Amino acid sequence: MTFRRRHLIAAGLALPAVARAQQARPVTLVVPFAPGGTTDIGARLVAARLAHHLGQPVVVENRAGAGGATAADHVRRQPADGSVMLIGTASTHAVNPALFADLPYDPERDFAPVALLGVTGFVLVVPATLGITDMAALVARLKAEPGRHNYASAGVGSMPHLAGEWFARGAGVRVEHVAYRGGGPALQALLTGEVTYMVESAPTVAGAIADGRLRALARASLRRSGPQADLPAIAEMGIPGFDAETWILAFAPAGTPAPTVARLNAAFNAALAEPELVRRLAEVGTVAVADSTPETTATFVRNERARWRRVVAETGVRITRE
């Protein structure tokens, strides 16, 4: 055994036991939805590169239920040591707090923001068979046939639900909301003509747009990104301020030490600056964010929460949790 190798082994043994355990222990990213969705895919892409930059294994755990509340409640109860983080979304930290007063978690008090990972835009889509080619024509059809049309969403209280209602109120049309059990069933209903339109995340509808079964009429988000970047924005076509997008963030339990949060933030940013990861996230419709800080992330979430509270108040959406 060479002197250098003996020296390195001795140095490793000399590390405090806590530090050695932290290096070996996996970090868990808790996704609040079932496997296979946009949030889950994004989290798994990031996790693979995060492990490299942390020097620790990173695993993804899915805890679906209650629009993300199940996962959020679980993570807030975990040790505040950086070993477990929540992949928070617009649902868990903006929409749910705007809709429900009895959440089992406080979106601000119970979590320490770590990093903003990516943003995913929404688009307004209709079946190609409807024969409508722009938003003005859709609004005209809905106004000419009040009460005869409906829109789909991935569930009551979901982002597509609120975005669809926001669009209806802003356009001054009378339509019915039809909630399905997830984005997949809602998409299928749209494709078969059960519903007239949907405001949905770009990745969910990208394939059906590409093969011509759906027609994208407008960007629901102000941010230009993905294949729909050149579409006109709903906000520019008669509904000022309309901006619907979702996002993924990393949250640690409240009380996680600032140096730990800073270390995790640096690792996330390093991963998200890699061109290959940026490319792979873009393929699923997510724009990578590689320059967030815990402070800018906290501000971002507060602003989003305030915005969706305004949307709920203006649309009058009322939901009772069972």
Structure, explained:
The chain folds into two domains: 164 residues, D-Maltodextrin-Binding Protein, domain 2; 116 residues, D-Maltodextrin-Binding Protein, domain 2 (3-Layer(aba) Sandwich), CATH 3.40.190. 45% of the residues are buried. Helices cover 44% and strands 20% of the residues. The longest helix has 22 residues. The protein has 322 residues and is an alpha/beta fold. Strands 1, 2, 3, 4, 5, 6, 7, 8, 9 and 10 form a ten-stranded mixed beta sheet that branches. Helix 3 crosses helix 10, helix 5 packs across helix 12 and helix 7 crosses helix 12. The protein has twelve helices and ten strands.
Give the domain tally.
2
Look at the structure and name the CATH superfamily of the largest domain. Bordetella uptake gene, domain 1
Round the Cα radius of gyration to an integer and report it.
22 Å
The profile of the biggest β sheet is:
10 strands, mixed
Q: What descriptive keywords fit this protein?
A:
ten-stranded mixed β-sheet, D-Maltodextrin-Binding Protein, domain 2, single chain, disordered N terminus, alpha/beta, 2 domains, 322 residues, 10 strands, 12 helices
Quick recap:
The protein has twelve helices and ten strands. It is of the alpha/beta class and 322 residues long. Strands 1, 2, 3, 4, 5, 6, 7, 8, 9 and 10 form a ten-stranded mixed β-sheet that branches.
Q: What's the SSE blueprint?
A:
Layout: H1 3-14, H2 17-24, E1 27-31, H3 38-54, E2 58-62, H4 69-76, E3 84-89, H5 90-99, E4 111-127, H6 135-144, E5 150-153, H7 159-171, E6 176-179, H8 183-191, E7 197-201, H9 202-210, E8 214-219, E9 245-253, H10 258-272, H11 275-283, E10 286-288, H12 294-315
Parallel strand pairs: 1-2, 1-3, 5-6, 5-7
Antiparallel strand pairs: 3-9, 4-7, 4-8, 4-9, 4-10
Helix pairs in contact: 3-10, 5-12, 7-12
